[in-house]
Task: structure prediction
Amino acid sequence: MNLQHHVSLKAYNTFGIPAKAETFVSATSVQELKEALSHPDYPNPFILGGGSNMLFKRDIDGLVVHVALKGIKIVDEDDNHVWVEVAAGENWHQFVMYCVEHGYGGVENLALIPGNTGTAPVQNIGAYGVELKDVFHACTAIDRNSLKERNFSLADCNFGYRESVFKNELKDRFVITSVTFKLTKANHQLHTEYGAIQQTLEDEEITHPGIKDIANAVIAIRSSKLPDPKELGNSGSFFKNPIISREQFERLQETFPQMPHYVISDTDIKIPAGWLIEQAGFKGKRYGDAGVHKNQALVLVNYGNATGAEIWDLALRVKKEVQEQFGIIIEPEVNIIE
Ligand code: EPU
Result:
């Protein structure tokens, strides 16, 4: 195991926060990962995947284990489907592109989401009408206590909107090593209902889209709204879209008739947090090197040298203002490392 000391994590988190790891190791095999998890000098190491959904407010004492397992392989196949097992350290978008190139359908709407495949199930990543759970077959994970490997089925994962068992009952208990997806080889179920996708396909005059057209449309939409973490540090949506009661929604609608919303059930309405934040006046605002993105108010950005604490201060300011103006509490989607 190649342990390094005093390593900057700036390149390992998409927010580009210069937190430091006291000790750092990149685990490139399951064996190495188990050794790192049971290192006698470093109890309870910190696990790092693609670093695309975390905000470091502090340095990390002890050991940071970077999960760098690689490999994509087909494990089963029938006339219509293919089951693909992807190692946890594979970049998510590269995996999506692999599927598009091979004609495997199911993940094309999830193009350009930052992060690694192994952490994608933790918050059930989703975009443009598709969530990871729709293509998830199973995953393998190491129990941090026993070092035994365990297989999780779709039902075991308890997926919800940006939720899974790995964020709740089993938080910090398992390290995912691989994820198996069930994808289509034929009769692809395309999801084009999302307005922006339809518009992009129309603009391109594509009447019979294939999975590559959908991926290209999603890439175009995301690139126009969401900042590329390589150019501007960010973690995608910083907040979750809040769900409020129908009564509260109807009261708010009297004052804000144009408030966008999605009906979740008879009693629950989801409001786009980006709209609330924009209405609260934060879109495009910058405080030092911490800011609210100019094209999508749900995304907080690091203009270069912001600290995690500065981004968090801005998040709290946004949260407070939204609560004062709308009486709605918005919660971070990003994992805050306190
Ligand atoms: N809106 C505004 N101002 C803004 C942003 C949004 O008014 O600055 C309003 C608009 O009315 C817009 C609506 O909010 O029509 C929805 O915006 P958008 O389509 O951009 O989607 P979102 O609800 O803001 C969610 C996900 C994104 C995902 C998109 C598309 C969450 C927390 N975010 O954003 O996920 O890409 O839908 O499906 O659910 C991520 O999780 O990192 C992420 C980017």
Q: What stands out?
A: The chain has a mean pLDDT of 97.
